[in-house]
Amino acid sequence: MLGRPRVTSRVALERLAFELFARDGFDETTVDGIAAAAGIGRRTFFRYFGSKNDLVWGDFEDQLERLRVLLDEADPAAPMMEAVRAAVVAFNRYDPQEVPWHRQRMELILRVPTLQADATLRYAAWREIIAAFVAARTGQPPTAMLPVLSGYAVLAASISAYEYWLSVGAAEDLTELLDAALRRIADGLAASDPATTGLATARPEAAALAITDPATGRPEVE
């Protein structure tokens, strides 16, 4: 028997590690175990990934840049939250052959307690990109209430869609679930979009407090 060929790429090492996580469990799988199965040394493993946790997140930094580009390329005339929704859905669209691997990745990220500290840091970076986009659209600083709220709300909707997707198996399309979840929150946040409410960007505090009068459908300012 020749055994498994030596792993010579980042992607191949990631896939092998995922197989070990599925077989033995994430916490039970060690860097030494991954390296041995891949036919490489620890030093080579750490040339590919900074840690076992980093391996699970893959090329997260590159993906963050992709989300930023999708938002930057949004039609300036499109309503703010429609642009966010379209960008986030596109960001989470995967080729069919990649979906099983992505599902396993998200199972680990959302279900393994020892990955939660890393998740907190990476979620913060993700939210900041959404907040920066909303801030630019509304003329507010990224630390203002509306941009911060938007970042948290969009992330929460996305995680909710992922949790449901993982719970129902392959029966549902991820992008359709994300689209539906983001439409729900977009209806509320759209009331603060100056492009749709007519609120001047010179008054960002007014935009942040805009609500919709259910009787008239028109925005009010508290």
TrEMBL record:
<dbReference type="Pfam" id="PF17754">
    <property type="entry name" value="TetR_C_14"/>
</dbReference>
<dbReference type="InterPro" id="IPR050109">
    <property type="entry name" value="HTH-type_TetR-like_transc_reg"/>
</dbReference>
<keyword id="KW-0238">DNA-binding</keyword>
<keyword id="KW-0805">Transcription regulation</keyword>
<dbReference type="InterPro" id="IPR001647">
    <property type="entry name" value="HTH_TetR"/>
</dbReference>
<dbReference type="InterPro" id="IPR041347">
    <property type="entry name" value="MftR_C"/>
</dbReference>
<feature type="domain" description="HTH tetR-type">
    <location>
        <begin position="7"/>
        <end position="67"/>
    </location>
</feature>
<feature type="DNA-binding region" description="H-T-H motif">
    <location>
        <begin position="30"/>
        <end position="49"/>
    </location>
</feature>
<dbReference type="InterPro" id="IPR023772">
    <property type="entry name" value="DNA-bd_HTH_TetR-type_CS"/>
</dbReference>
<dbReference type="Pfam" id="PF00440">
    <property type="entry name" value="TetR_N"/>
</dbReference>
<protein>
    <submittedName>
        <fullName>TetR family transcriptional regulator</fullName>
    </submittedName>
</protein>
<keyword id="KW-0804">Transcription</keyword>
<dbReference type="GO" id="GO:0000976">
    <property type="term" value="F:transcription cis-regulatory region binding"/>
</dbReference>
<dbReference type="GO" id="GO:0003700">
    <property type="term" value="F:DNA-binding transcription factor activity"/>
</dbReference>
<dbReference type="InterPro" id="IPR023851">
    <property type="entry name" value="Tscrpt_reg_TetR-type"/>
</dbReference>
<dbReference type="InterPro" id="IPR009057">
    <property type="entry name" value="Homeodomain-like_sf"/>
</dbReference>
